[in-house]
Design a protein that fits this description.
166 residues; alpha+beta; three-stranded antiparallel beta sheet; three-stranded mixed beta sheet; 5 helices; elongated
Protein backbone atom coordinates (compact mmCIF):
# COMPACT_ATOMS: atom_id res chain seq x y z
CA UNK A 1 0.00 0.00 0.00
CA UNK A 2 1.57 3.28 -1.12
CA UNK A 3 1.53 6.20 1.29
CA UNK A 4 -0.75 8.87 -0.25
CA UNK A 5 1.54 11.61 1.11
CA UNK A 6 5.10 10.55 0.24
CA UNK A 7 4.43 7.56 -2.09
CA UNK A 8 6.52 5.22 0.07
CA UNK A 9 5.60 1.65 -0.96
CA UNK A 10 5.38 0.40 2.62
CA UNK A 11 2.96 1.06 5.48
CA UNK A 12 2.19 -0.45 8.87
CA UNK A 13 -1.33 -1.40 9.98
CA UNK A 14 -2.14 0.36 13.26
CA UNK A 15 -5.81 -0.69 13.63
CA UNK A 16 -8.31 -2.93 11.77
CA UNK A 17 -12.09 -2.88 12.11
CA UNK A 18 -15.07 -4.37 10.35
CA UNK A 19 -17.17 -1.94 8.32
CA UNK A 20 -20.42 -2.14 6.32
CA UNK A 21 -21.90 -5.12 8.19
CA UNK A 22 -18.73 -7.16 7.81
CA UNK A 23 -18.45 -6.82 4.05
CA UNK A 24 -15.42 -4.53 4.32
CA UNK A 25 -12.40 -4.01 6.55
CA UNK A 26 -11.32 -0.52 7.57
CA UNK A 27 -7.60 -0.29 8.27
CA UNK A 28 -5.75 2.60 9.88
CA UNK A 29 -2.18 2.69 8.53
CA UNK A 30 0.99 4.60 9.32
CA UNK A 31 3.83 5.32 6.91
CA UNK A 32 7.26 4.44 8.37
CA UNK A 33 8.92 7.02 6.10
CA UNK A 34 6.93 10.21 6.82
CA UNK A 35 5.04 9.05 9.94
CA UNK A 36 1.64 10.22 8.68
CA UNK A 37 -1.49 8.11 9.10
CA UNK A 38 -4.17 7.25 6.56
CA UNK A 39 -7.19 4.96 6.26
CA UNK A 40 -7.90 2.24 3.71
CA UNK A 41 -11.09 0.27 3.16
CA UNK A 42 -10.74 -3.24 1.78
CA UNK A 43 -13.60 -5.07 0.12
CA UNK A 44 -13.74 -8.27 -1.83
CA UNK A 45 -14.39 -7.92 -5.52
CA UNK A 46 -17.16 -9.92 -7.15
CA UNK A 47 -17.14 -10.22 -10.93
CA UNK A 48 -20.07 -11.20 -13.12
CA UNK A 49 -19.10 -13.04 -16.31
CA UNK A 50 -21.41 -12.17 -19.17
CA UNK A 51 -22.32 -14.48 -22.08
CA UNK A 52 -19.66 -12.81 -24.21
CA UNK A 53 -17.03 -13.84 -21.65
CA UNK A 54 -16.41 -10.27 -20.49
CA UNK A 55 -16.29 -9.75 -16.73
CA UNK A 56 -17.68 -6.73 -14.91
CA UNK A 57 -18.14 -5.84 -11.24
CA UNK A 58 -21.35 -7.04 -9.56
CA UNK A 59 -23.90 -4.24 -9.42
CA UNK A 60 -26.95 -4.13 -7.17
CA UNK A 61 -28.43 -1.46 -9.43
CA UNK A 62 -28.38 -3.88 -12.38
CA UNK A 63 -30.22 -6.46 -10.27
CA UNK A 64 -32.79 -3.83 -9.29
CA UNK A 65 -33.27 -2.65 -12.88
CA UNK A 66 -33.75 -6.21 -14.14
CA UNK A 67 -36.23 -7.09 -11.43
CA UNK A 68 -38.03 -3.74 -11.74
CA UNK A 69 -39.14 -4.74 -15.26
CA UNK A 70 -40.66 -7.96 -13.93
CA UNK A 71 -42.37 -6.02 -11.10
CA UNK A 72 -43.92 -3.41 -13.37
CA UNK A 73 -47.52 -2.87 -12.32
CA UNK A 74 -47.09 -4.96 -9.17
CA UNK A 75 -47.30 -3.71 -5.56
CA UNK A 76 -43.52 -3.74 -5.06
CA UNK A 77 -41.74 -0.70 -3.62
CA UNK A 78 -38.22 0.57 -4.30
CA UNK A 79 -37.28 -0.47 -0.76
CA UNK A 80 -38.46 -4.01 -1.55
CA UNK A 81 -36.25 -4.03 -4.64
CA UNK A 82 -33.26 -2.73 -2.66
CA UNK A 83 -33.73 -5.44 -0.01
CA UNK A 84 -33.99 -8.09 -2.73
CA UNK A 85 -30.76 -6.89 -4.36
CA UNK A 86 -29.00 -6.95 -0.97
CA UNK A 87 -30.22 -10.49 -0.32
CA UNK A 88 -29.04 -11.60 -3.77
CA UNK A 89 -25.60 -10.07 -3.22
CA UNK A 90 -25.30 -11.69 0.22
CA UNK A 91 -26.21 -15.11 -1.22
CA UNK A 92 -23.68 -14.77 -4.01
CA UNK A 93 -20.91 -13.54 -1.70
CA UNK A 94 -21.63 -16.35 0.78
CA UNK A 95 -20.81 -18.87 -1.96
CA UNK A 96 -17.21 -17.68 -1.70
CA UNK A 97 -16.74 -17.41 -5.47
CA UNK A 98 -14.92 -14.38 -6.85
CA UNK A 99 -16.63 -14.78 -10.24
CA UNK A 100 -20.17 -15.82 -11.10
CA UNK A 101 -21.89 -16.37 -14.42
CA UNK A 102 -24.55 -13.76 -15.27
CA UNK A 103 -27.11 -16.52 -15.79
CA UNK A 104 -26.39 -17.80 -12.27
CA UNK A 105 -27.12 -14.33 -10.89
CA UNK A 106 -30.54 -14.51 -12.56
CA UNK A 107 -31.19 -17.90 -10.99
CA UNK A 108 -30.19 -16.60 -7.53
CA UNK A 109 -32.70 -13.76 -7.96
CA UNK A 110 -35.56 -16.25 -8.38
CA UNK A 111 -35.72 -17.32 -4.71
CA UNK A 112 -36.09 -13.89 -3.11
CA UNK A 113 -38.33 -12.72 -5.96
CA UNK A 114 -40.70 -15.64 -5.43
CA UNK A 115 -41.12 -14.59 -1.80
CA UNK A 116 -41.63 -10.96 -2.83
CA UNK A 117 -44.20 -11.35 -5.63
CA UNK A 118 -45.28 -14.54 -7.42
CA UNK A 119 -46.42 -12.79 -10.61
CA UNK A 120 -43.10 -10.96 -10.92
CA UNK A 121 -41.39 -14.27 -10.20
CA UNK A 122 -43.20 -15.93 -13.12
CA UNK A 123 -42.31 -13.06 -15.44
CA UNK A 124 -38.64 -13.21 -14.45
CA UNK A 125 -38.52 -17.03 -14.47
CA UNK A 126 -39.93 -17.15 -17.97
CA UNK A 127 -36.74 -15.45 -19.17
CA UNK A 128 -34.14 -17.14 -16.97
CA UNK A 129 -35.60 -20.63 -17.18
CA UNK A 130 -36.26 -20.21 -20.91
CA UNK A 131 -39.98 -20.95 -20.92
CA UNK A 132 -40.93 -22.01 -24.43
CA UNK A 133 -44.59 -22.98 -24.12
CA UNK A 134 -47.73 -22.64 -22.06
CA UNK A 135 -46.87 -25.96 -20.43
CA UNK A 136 -43.73 -24.37 -18.98
CA UNK A 137 -45.87 -21.66 -17.35
CA UNK A 138 -48.42 -24.24 -16.19
CA UNK A 139 -45.77 -26.38 -14.53
CA UNK A 140 -44.23 -23.33 -12.83
CA UNK A 141 -47.66 -22.28 -11.54
CA UNK A 142 -48.38 -25.83 -10.36
CA UNK A 143 -45.08 -25.83 -8.48
CA UNK A 144 -45.93 -22.46 -6.86
CA UNK A 145 -49.33 -23.81 -5.81
CA UNK A 146 -47.76 -26.98 -4.40
CA UNK A 147 -45.22 -24.94 -2.41
CA UNK A 148 -48.00 -22.68 -1.11
CA UNK A 149 -50.02 -25.71 0.08
CA UNK A 150 -46.95 -27.30 1.67
CA UNK A 151 -46.06 -24.00 3.33
CA UNK A 152 -49.59 -23.64 4.69
CA UNK A 153 -49.51 -27.20 6.07
CA UNK A 154 -46.15 -26.65 7.72
CA UNK A 155 -47.19 -23.30 9.20
CA UNK A 156 -50.45 -24.50 10.71
CA UNK A 157 -49.38 -27.99 11.79
CA UNK A 158 -51.75 -30.96 11.80
CA UNK A 159 -55.44 -30.18 11.85
CA UNK A 160 -57.57 -31.44 14.71
CA UNK A 161 -59.17 -34.03 12.40
CA UNK A 162 -55.73 -35.35 11.44
CA UNK A 163 -53.92 -37.74 13.71
CA UNK A 164 -50.63 -36.49 15.04
CA UNK A 165 -47.70 -38.86 14.46
CA UNK A 166 -46.74 -38.52 18.15
Amino acid sequence: MYCPFCRNPDSRVVDSRMADDGSAIRRRRQCPECGRRFTTVETTSLSVIKRSGVGEPFSRSKVINGVRKACQGRPVSEDDLAMLAQEVEEQIRSSGAAEIDAHEVGLVILGPLQKLDEVAYLRFASVYQAFESLEDFESAIALLRHEAVEGAKGASGPKSSEKSPL
